[in-house]
Amino acid sequence: MRTITTWAGLHSEIETGAANNLAALRDRLSGSSDQPLNELCLVVLVELGDRFSDIEGVLQHTLHPPPWEYVDCAGGWFELVLVTGDDGFGYVVLVPDQAAIDPEILEYCRSLTS
């Protein structure tokens, strides 16, 4: 699991497989680019070997019932957004829709988008 907490980190990760999702996120947040990214959100990229409990650990939040404000599946990636504070801080979790990812994570994501 990789986390992104800075604008520089976000820009460098755009070169990865999640490029379209991260570029769209960057564009959505562009009006707030004068603020540190870690004051706006924490971006979590789920990777091979990550487990469902790992996501809950990073978010420090249970995922049952689903707490998401926004869920989408596009370009081979699931995007799950959780807003946790009145100030708008949130988590953006990106999960590749690939067979190598933990089946529990994929089943969970697919259940949210069906």
At a glance:
The protein has 114 residues and is α+β, with helices and mostly antiparallel strands. It has helices at residues 7-13, 19-29, 37-40, 52-59, 103-113; strands spanning 2-4, 41-45, 70-74, 77-83, 90-96. The chain is 36% helix and 24% strand.
Low-confidence stretches: none
Sequence of secondary-structure elements: EHHHEHEEEH
Coarse structural class: alpha+beta
**Backbone shape:** globular
Mean pLDDT: 94
User: Major sheet, described briefly?
Assistant: 5 strands, mixed
Structural domains: how many = 1
Instruction: Please tell me how large the radius of gyration is.
Output: 13 Å
Helix content: 25-40%
List how many beta strands DSSP finds: 5
Order of adjacent strands in the largest pleated sheet? 1-2-5-4-3
**Distance between termini?**
25 Å
Estimate what percentage of residues fall within beta strands.
15-25%
Continuous helix count:
5
